[in-house]
Amino acid sequence: MPKLETIEQVERFQEKCKAALDKFPLVVSLCYGTACCAIGAKELAAAFEEALGGDKSVKFIKSGCHGFCEVGPLVVVRPLDVVYQQVKPADVPEIVERSLKEGEVIDRLLYRPGGNGNVFAKENEIPFYAKQSKVVLALNSHIDPYSIEDYMAYGGYSALSKALLEMTPDAVLKEVSGAKLRGRGGGGFDAGRKWNSCRKAPGKRRHIICNADEGDPGAFMDESILEGNPHSVIEGMVIGAWAIGGTDGFIYIRNEYPRALEAFSSALEQAREYGFLGKNILGSGLDFDIKISRGGGAFVCGESSALFRSLEGDVGEPRAKYVHSVERGYHDEPTNLNNVETWANVPHIINKGAEWFRSIGTEDSPGTKVFSLVGKVENTGLIEVPMGITLKEIIFEIGGGIKGGKDFKAVQTGGPSGGCLPASSLDLPVDFDVLTEAGSMMGSGGMIVMDEDTCVVDVAKYFTDFLIEESCGKCLPCREGLMHMSRILHRITEGRGEPKDLESLKKLGDAVAVASLCGLGTSAPNPVLSSIKYFEDEYLAHINERKCPGGVCQALISYHIDPETCTGCGTCEKVCPVAAIQPVAGEEREEGLLRIIDLAVCEKCNACREVCPEDAITRR
Amino acid sequence: MFDSEDLVTAMLAVQEEFNWLPPQALDYISRRLSVRKPRIYHIATFYKVFSLEPRGKHILQLCMGTACHVRGAKLIADELSRRHGIHFGETTDDGLFTLERVNCLGACAIGPILVVDGDYRGNMTTNRANAVVKRLKREAIEEEGASA
User: A239 and chain B: CB distance < 8 Å anywhere?
Assistant: First the structure.
């Protein structure tokens, strides 16, 4: 393939790609994201490939994440536009025979939430999708991430050719600044301003870097973008290089994402082949390429100055930021770092303009945001919503409410740097500033829903321990302060809390926040401080009553069998590894004798609770 | 050409090949990239992915991301340690298992997740984790019997 050099050539090639796609009257799009693959998408792919044989009328796509992980593996059949959920290899022949050949909808594979008779066939009817507005994820279920041709059939690289061949770097900068695009990695810093400062910073080289070190546990937005639509990130970065005057590019990919790495590597090769990377891109005179660098499993490397050290082949320890990284970043040279989602937004802004972008979302946080909605929610998955949507809409309309009809307790946003928000915050609109004001933060987009069976003290302890593990140890407040906070939290959850502990936690937290060197430390106390602010009662229950209201803290709970609910089936007795469960003589139930747990023997391993068909085993 | 910037990448490649960093390999890297060894060991101990000791025959990775945590991953960790003597970051004395703690594998919808030799097992429970370990132990005994 000769390199493309003019807008006409790019457009002609896009038309060719589109014509090639249009030749297929039928499309089967199988979600091949990490979650779906872990629950059978790989076997499904093999089954489809076999059943379709070499059928020239069907385009079979192994696509990136469709989003609705809860009911995966997912298959979308077009133009019927029907979504099949929890598909098994045995269903494949029927899908091929009936849906593809006859155009029929297979009723039993449709999505039926809640068992109340509602059935949804089409993607835009399913409540989980209906409230979303997809920009960055829009192409995910339509394209093969390993095919640049698919991306171009949907207008891919139009923004790049427009920017490089029709716009000056200044005009591109103006568009991005005008869009008020804010960094999606967590800080929410104005991307246009950052680009501008980097462009103005003195230096021979300027580095354009994509932060794909998505270390926030419980978040997989960037992974899904890289896996599903890697070219959008490349396109955004090259446009950035044009605007900023970038000389070389890097992407820093988290080690835990081998599949994202593979998809992105392949995309880089294809982009080079077509002349979207390399020397004299599209004949514009821009020389730019992107090198992949892999992380080593260190959360702190998502912090900019640590990331640069890691890129330089060193340990990822942050530095004090007296000088901004746009001026002195990688190798102390001007560096522009944005995360995956931020870069993926850029082509859309160039294509459709700043005004369009600002028409979505709120005044100060325009555009959409991708969230991973996880935890104790009915519809777990990846969602993209306009900024300004309320937490309630996300959790109860898109998310379908709390799993198993339990009560909502809290939602955690912003990962280890964010906080827990209570039910009274559910009406808050989600944007960068509102969440920060409420004591949490937007973060990169992890949203973890907690129900009545979750203990907020335990979660605060979890994040603190996570951060101790991930703290680089360079500065004292973070290294020692967190350790002491953790000690207190452990004491509280083990039933040895004291009334003065809350005051100590607050004091320590404030000190760590003020005195730490980098963002990891300054935000580290947030999970603890926000949970004390909103859930003081729960802390007090642990401290004063030695009780864990969520039924999680092992030292404060015991397992019991409810004599009213137990049917005497004996399943629990069979799985108990320490023989702590015994039948009660004379207590006949439907299926046998009532069982009872010997608390002196019980190790609280939870095995019995997992298997009880009647949910008769409680923790309290 | 390679230079000291490729250090982490080179070490990752060795780690992937051998599942740990043998000293001979680190010697080689030190010579090839002209990097002094203290720096190599500094990096090897800083990043979680590296291991300076040989690892077990089976690598178990338990996801301890937030979503998995609230769904009970800790119970599974407790069970593996109590019942089978498999502890985070350690290799069992018989060299059969290494248990690693990973922070989010990006498949939160199906948590808790236990990865057994690269194979993702979703919706993990203490019962299922027990079954996995028991099966692998049994297989090891059978293999030993077959080769004896």
Answer: no
